[in-house]
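Box S1 | Example of a co-folding query
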Amino acid sequence: MQRLRIVVKVGSSSLTDPTTGLLSSQKVHGIVERLAPVLKDPAYEVILVSSGAIAAGRGRLGWRSARTVPEKQAASAVGQSLLIDLYQREFMSLNRVVAQILLTRSDMENRRRFVNIRNTLETLLEAGVLPIVNENDTVAVNEIRFGDNDSLAALVAILICAQHLILLTDIDGLYTEDPRVVPDAKRIEEVEKIDSSIRELAGGVGSSVGTGGMHTKIRAAEMAIHSGIEVVIAAASEPNVLMRLLRGERLGTRFLPEKSHWNARKSWLVHGSRSVGRLYIDAGAARAVRTTGGSLLLPGIERVEGRFDEGAIVELIDPEGRAIAKGIVSFSARDLEYFIKNKSLKGQLHGLPEVVHRNDLALLL
Ligand SMILES: Nc1ncnc2c1ncn2[C@@H]1O[C@H](COP(=O)(O)OP(=O)(O)O)[C@@H](O)[C@H]1O
Ligand SMILES: N[C@@H](CCC(=O)OP(=O)(O)O)C(=O)O
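Box S1 (continued) | Returned holo structure for VHF
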């Protein structure tokens, strides 16, 4: 039987006490209660992405707040083990082994690590273990931080080819405006396509502990639906919310997956990888790449930007300056510059590999 894969993300706001902002063991218990029936059902495989480390650490350290990045990192270092210990004890009563997985953005950007993470998760799921993922806050300096766990959860869902991503938060879905600011705002039940009219609905963060508010959730939903994954934003406080959602009950806001979506490799290219260079290409090459699904060949390249080796991720820029695709380049920047400078060589360059093979290329436009 093909099991459905579900990534459930629980935000800081749903794991903490609203007045103190500290981790609430009662709320953690509530999340475990909602997960229990799904875990028991052989139709599903679950990965939990849980925030809460900073809140747990602040509680243990007696800190009223953690504002600077080093403070948050220190609080998280103290709190992550407390958080996992709490989950461990809760899941023990359900006879379920848990595993801790801590990731940074750069783990996702590196294709080998990305594949390794997938192998580990697959093995854990196969062994009936519940993986509990969080950002590795202590090593995640600004450039490699997710910051919010919504994008992390979307990338995990892409990585393991999940069918559902459920973002549990302190509000029962996406509203036409932030209901904390505009009390008569209306909940949106279903979103067919995420465009600027949807992105504009997101207001700020509601609680003192949340990060990103609806902005990061809509961004995460966008990544996931492009990859064929259905996304729901729902209230963590709703009784039996997960099973009810999986049975099709209309709770929260459902974002429909796109029908013609990227495969996992292309999704990783677009959302997971970071490009380190740009190839400026001519109109003919842009047309070949965009409309005929062709590879990028040497004669189409006009200029190279960035220092990179073969195997790096680059963006392809068309003559109008638009990034039309992202792909894995087969030559280093130095080699490409050499070929461009010695254009007369072009005629003799048949037989060289494509600069970016079509299988290693994902269109952005
Ligand atoms: N259009 C909107 N609809 C619903 N909630 C919104 C909207 N804009 C902003 N918000 C705020 O987003 C908050 C949830 O985000 P956040 O605090 O980051 O949660 P989490 O900790 O679960 O990631 C809500 O409490 C709400 O105040
Ligand atoms: N990694 C941090 C969570 C960051 C965060 O607050 O994210 P979110 O729950 O999306 O608002 C922690 O465990 O405290």
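The chain has twelve helices and 13 strands. The first strand starts at residue 4 and ends at 10.
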